[in-house]
Every structure is written in C-alpha cells, then in structure tokens.
Design a protein that fits this description.
Blueprint: H1 9-17, E1 21-22, E2 26-27, E3 44-45, E4 55-61, H2 69-86, E5 89-98, E6 110-119, H3 130-143, H4 148-159
Helix pairs in contact: 3-4
Length: 161
C-alpha cells in the first residue's frame, strides 16, 4: 500500500505567494543593483543636481506579479525615510529604477532607489510666512522662553481675525 503525503498548506501558500525581497540599505558605491542581470527597467535620474554626501541604495521586489509597483515603491521609500530620519536628515533621491514589461515569470514588480541623506532644511529666521513664525513661537513656548499667554497673543496677531 502506498501512501502519498498531501501538500501542506504552508507549502501551497509559499508557492502561491512567492518571496518578497527587501534589500538592506547599502552604500551605492560598494553595492550592485539587482537590476543588472535582469535588464528590466532603466535607471532614471531624479535629481538635477546631485546633493553632496554618501549615496545609498535600497531595492524592493514584490512577492508576486499581482503586487503593485506603487506598493513596492512606497515600502522602499518609507525605509529610506526612516534611515535618513535616524541620521537626522531627509531623503534626497538621486536615481530610481522600476521594472517594466509583463509582471510574470519572475519579473515581479521591482523598485530601486539611490539616495543621499541631506540635512533638514531650516526655516529662515527673518521669514515673513506666518506659519514659519508660528513654528518658531511654538519652539519658544516649548523651551519656556515665553508664556502660554504670550504665545496665544502672538498667534492671534499672526493669524489675524
């Protein structure tokens, strides 16, 4: 009597879902693009002027052809933003690359971003924008340099009737 073992649900799920891939964030100078051997998609220069600083690379691949390129892109961008936030900066994209062609036979949606962590822009001290001035007043309130009443009075004056 022969007995054949049924496929487990985990194996079936793995076959149907596939494997998503999120690369670690690595220095672009010492890492290779996962697009190099696929030939799918061309890098697009995003920045007209490349900001100074070390360039980093991150790439994501969807788990199936049913995964949207938009969700893969958002995931990669969110990880890049968190990475730069830890360094006290913001993401400045340099190049990006998106897979093209039919999303079948392993050509699942892919997205790669090369970016620089730039320093956060600071509002100008003498700005006439009331919202920038209000942010500065809030900082003064939080530091204890002005009272709540002074803050409320200046806020009402800045924002007007």
């Amino acid at each position: 009597m022969s007995y054949t073992r049924p496929l487990s649900l985990g194996l079936i799920a793995a076959l149907l879902i596939g494997c998503a891939y999120a690369s670690p964030i690595t220095p672009a100078a010492t890492s290779e693009s996962p697009f190099w051997w696929f030939g799918w998609g061309q890098p697009v220069q995003v920045a007209t002027v490349v900001p100074p600083g070390e360039q980093f690379r991150i790439s994501h691949r969807g788990s199936t052809g049913f995964t949207s390129v938009v969700s893969v892109r958002q995931s990669a961008e969110a990880r890049a933003e968190a990475f730069c936030e830890k360094q006290g900066g913001v993401v400045s994209p340099v190049t990006e690359q998106v897979s093209s062609g039919p999303q079948i036979l392993g050509n699942f949606p892919r997205f790669e971003l090369v970016f620089v962590c730039s320093s956060k822009p600071t509002p100008a001290e003498g700005s006439t924008d009331p919202y920038v001035r209000l942010m500065r007043l809030k900082e003064l309130l939080d530091s204890g340099a002005i009272s709540q009443q002074e803050f409320d009075r200046e806020k009402a004056r800045l924002l007007g009737p």
